[in-house]
């Protein structure tokens, strides 16, 4: 197989679909189809699950010692590292993100595998002396087959975030990348074969949400479902998994609040505000898409923010100077532009940005003011480089505005006042709060959201809880 075809990786082999169906794989910057991928149907999904089931029930992977399994996961990370240029090239080609950002994402993907390998290797359980002449302790065993369904905005990184803890804890896994970005995850499957993983430990199923993804979530041989995508699809996934009582972990949409107080370091706040909404062309669940600026500094901040947004180098994602490129697909370009197009009728002002209008799928860094809080662009996840700005006059008002959303994935706040930083961080309704920064992550901490942003947390012990079955052993010792 060459990189003009991305098959399924099932049971240690790259294979086409049973019925031979394929779909186009696009380069959004050149607007060309550069490859074909296997279009998974129910039969392909069933084959992938059967293979992972067998690998779990009969294969060596769950029975490996923790040290040996960690070493195997590190071997896969080594291969990914050695091939990081190729993986990043695929993500840039397939999704359109600037190459430097794709390289950064591959580095984080490698770290995900290394972190969870070590976390599993070095984990501890609990023991409790009992007064009854017994003692009791916990064991954390693997759960079985994991279905991992990942999105297109960080093709490799989002998949690695699921696959790494799943396999490190001794599970086997079928990963279905987004139909928009099958390339790098297929290569991950190939690398698992190259790393000597037993067949079925990492299977890759390519194809669309329905039927490929939905066949996985409905399969009662699947023990856990981990999903990142839209809130609407998350509900469908959860209902499907409920049919066979498989626990779900859902990382869904966001409408991140970014609160800049009058005592913020403005250089730092502008820098991170730009990063928070325009990195990856805003196609980030964590994007700071709602910006709240203290009235006392509003004019100065806005002048600097708009200038910084307009100064971003826009262009070919493979040009090292490029900081900002096109959206990931025509479908997504249409979605983002429809929100921007509706702003005027809703009473808002597009201060800068909008669709490039040159035939590309580029929406320039876009800043909007004066939007009422009921407007779709104000309250719904646009998932693009579109920042809606409001002002506030007090801390209470800022917290109220920030929390006024169905989502609750993350928030940012900028202040040099230590007490205010802690006070406001504690009041914000969000799974992650960044103070004077953005996107920095320690893999030991919980990651996930409240409300429409998701169900459950992953990271460190939170992943351990999701990807293992804890068992209590009670032992009589007074005989
Ligand atoms: O998401 P979907 P889409 C948001 C963002 C974006 C919108 C739509 O607002 O504009 O969602 O993007 C698979 N059973 N986010 O359509 O449909 C699908 O094949 C099982 C936020 O890409 O949620 C893909 O692999 N799987 C987000 C994955 O689910 C199904 C990242 C995500 O697709 C399925 C992406 C089904 N019935 C989009 N239907 C974030 N949280 O970062 C689809 N899929």
Could you explain the architecture of this structure?
By secondary structure, the protein is α/β, with parallel strands linked by helices. The strands form five sheets. Strands 15-16-17-14-13-18-19 form a seven-stranded mixed beta sheet, sandwiched between helices. Helix 3 (84-95) packs across helix 4 (99-121). The chain has helices at residues 42-57, 66-82, 84-95, 99-121, 155-168, 183-194, 209-218, 231-242, 266-278, 298-311, 330-341, 376-379, 395-403, 418-427, 460-467, and strands at residues 5-6, 8-10, 13-15, 22-27, 32-38, 127-129, 134-142, 145-149, 172-176, 202-204, 224-228, 248-251, 257-260, 290-294, 349-355, 363-369, 386-392, 410-414, 432-435, 454-455, 468-476. The radius of gyration is 23 Å and the shape is globular. It binds ligand TXE. Ligand TXE binds at residues 149-153, 176, 178-179, 208-210, 213-214, 217, 228-230, 233, 236-237, 251-253, 285, 332, 335, 381, 383.
What attributes characterize this protein structure?
single chain; 479 residues; alpha/beta; 7-stranded mixed β-sheet; 6-stranded mixed β-sheet; 15 helices; globular; binds ligand TXE
What topology emerges from the helices and strands here?
Elements: E1 5-6, E2 8-10, E3 13-15, E4 22-27, E5 32-38, H1 42-57, H2 66-82, H3 84-95, H4 99-121, E6 127-129, E7 134-142, E8 145-149, H5 155-168, E9 172-176, H6 183-194, E10 202-204, H7 209-218, E11 224-228, H8 231-242, E12 248-251, E13 257-260, H9 266-278, E14 290-294, H10 298-311, H11 330-341, E15 349-355, E16 363-369, H12 376-379, E17 386-392, H13 395-403, E18 410-414, H14 418-427, E19 432-435, E20 454-455, H15 460-467, E21 468-476
Helix pairs in contact: 1-7, 2-4, 3-4, 4-5, 9-10
Bound molecules: ligand TXE.
